Amino acid sequence: MNVSDSEIKSLLQSYKSITVYGLSHDPSKPSHYVPVFIREKGWNVLGTYPKEHNVGSFPIFKNLNEIPKEDRKFIDVFRSSDKIPEVVDEIIALGGTEVLWLQLGISHPEAEKKAEDAGIKVVSNRCLIIEYNRFF
């Protein structure tokens, strides 16, 4: 993680659109209720999920490359830690991502370093709900 604790509030204030990588159709999962929460707090939320769904009326795309580049600047990831290297490779290959946020319980130091080396700000093992409630 190359973003210090003191930078998180300003980072969240700097972006109005968040793409959720792995936005679930299951309302009981954090990968669904966290995006609902952040949308309710004013962010534009888009998601990726391999299967089509329209739960929560989010714009859902099968792949990250289908999402407009301007909406891929801040990517919030809900994938297991072992999948983070492939997510980072995909993000770097597409370009345009400025922030990679790995939700609570998710980290992969080598992949995070690779993202950092590509100029991406990385926050890992942090929940957007917790961080929002802490700063706002």
From TrEMBL:
Pfam families recorded: CoA_binding_2
Coiled coil: none
Residue span(s) of domain CoA-binding: 11-106
Name by which UniProt lists this protein: CoA-binding domain-containing protein
